[in-house]
């Protein structure tokens, strides 16, 4: 993958293989290419998932330590059942909080790139909103494919997402014509 970062003032292009722009090399007048943005977006998602696993395990272990000693009885349920529910609840909470913490850590490490990424993020969401299908035609046998574009991590994934949206649109309009 080539990284293209353009400087607005001189319109020069620099390329380097397999590297995303580092926060130290980015100045206020530069623009991220779509390939760079999508690779950064994929790396952010990996950060979020990488922090989710240890936080879920830690929360589950903390829940096990607490509920293993303090087995509460609630509404006549067996204390062991309540301890298991407590452990599952703390693990679930860790699973929900993990991506938030991962995202915040990622944001701290990429502070200089944030304005460029946020601009591209707004533009990306405009593209997604413009090209996604109407969810009112979905059913259990015909769900909307990746409505928010969360799985898009490259230009290839984006093109595939567009094809999936078009395929769904055709399938939904064909079903509406037969009713």
TrEMBL record:
Alphabetized InterPro entries for the sequence: Pam17 (IPR013875)
Please give the GO cellular component terms listed in this UniProt entry.
PAM complex, Tim23 associated import motor
Query: Keyword annotations for this protein?
Result: Membrane, Mitochondrion, Mitochondrion inner membrane, Protein transport, Transit peptide, Translocation, Transmembrane, Transmembrane helix, Transport
Q: How does it sit in the membrane?
A: Multi-pass membrane protein
Source organism's superkingdom?
Eukaryota
Signal sequence region: none
Q: Which family, according to UniProt?
A: Belongs to the PAM17 family.
Give the record's subunit note.
Answer: Component of the PAM complex.
Q: What does this protein do?
A: Component of the PAM complex, a complex required for the translocation of transit peptide-containing proteins from the inner membrane into the mitochondrial matrix in an ATP-dependent manner.
State the name under which the record lists this protein: Presequence translocated-associated motor subunit PAM17
Phylogenetic lineage: Eukaryota, Fungi, Dikarya, Basidiomycota, Agaricomycotina
């Amino acid at each position: 993958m080539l990284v293209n970062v353009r400087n607005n003032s001189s319109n020069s292009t620099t390329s380097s293989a397999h590297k995303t722009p580092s926060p130290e090399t980015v100045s206020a007048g530069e623009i991220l290419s779509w390939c760079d943005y999508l690779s950064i977006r994929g790396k952010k998602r990996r950060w979020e998932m990488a922090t989710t696993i240890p936080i879920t395990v830690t929360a589950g272990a903390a829940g096990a330590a607490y509920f293993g000693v303090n087995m509460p009885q609630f509404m006549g349920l067996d204390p062991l059942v309540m301890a298991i529910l407590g452990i599952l609840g703390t693990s679930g909470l860790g699973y929900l909080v993990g991506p938030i913490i991962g995202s915040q850590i990622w944001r701290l490490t990429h502070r200089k790139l944030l304005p460029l990424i946020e601009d591209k993020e707004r533009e990306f969401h405009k593209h997604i909103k413009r090209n996604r299908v109407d969810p009112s035609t979905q059913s259990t046998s015909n769900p909307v494919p990746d409505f928010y574009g969360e799985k898009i991590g490259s230009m290839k994934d984006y093109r595939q997402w567009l094809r999936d949206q078009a395929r769904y649109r055709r399938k939904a309009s064909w079903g509406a014509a037969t009713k």
